Amino acid sequence: MNCEWVQRNITLYLYGELADDAHHELEQHVARCQACAAELAEQREFHKQMNALPVEEPSASPTTDTPVEASIGGITSIERDPTTNTVKVQYDRVTPGSVQGAVSDPRVQDLLLYAAKSNENSGVRLNSVDALVDKTDDMRVRETLTYALRYDSNPGVRLHSLDGLGPLVKQDIRVRNAVLEALLNDSNLGVRSGALHSLEPVKTDSSVRMALEQLAQEDPSEYIRTESRRVLASMPTVY
Ligand SMILES: [Zn+2]
To answer: How far is the CA of 13 from the centre of ligand 1 (A)?
Structure first.
């Protein structure tokens, strides 16, 4: 576990969403790395402010998280204003509240990331993903969209996540693997076909090529077989 990993995952840590072993490792790392400890302290402070709860004693055990969802009952709607390019995220607390601002505003973005992963309403998840798709330079956004592509139960949310991730298949191997996984395993033909087209720019990659060869032979969908053959046929000969 390196600093980059830790800093990318601090938000998930604060949300209490890291697996037990990763959670533990992150705490071990922070205990001996000043840079990451400072980053964690800053983000934890931010979450506290957002929760607007009485600030906890700093002596609280580091395992005592103050996850943002503890005070947010649920995100009820996400509206985007294309003219001002701002997003309004409405959520229930003890009383309903809302935050409004640019997608790049950390308070807005944290709520969007949270909603994209955990909201029960697929329409809210879809709107979150749509607000985030052009912010994939941010690693947390990229991770959230990858998570949605892998695990969201709604094919529309998976498709829209794929729209944001598709342009990254060349530069980010984890994104490429998630898209490849969607091509091979997604239950929805639209998602699979979107994944196939997203992977065209990296068709010479050996894992992509192997997948296409397999799909061209034996995929149950005629469309996927045909498209895989087409992409393979357009491939330059490898010497
Ligand atoms: Zn570190």
So the answer is: 14
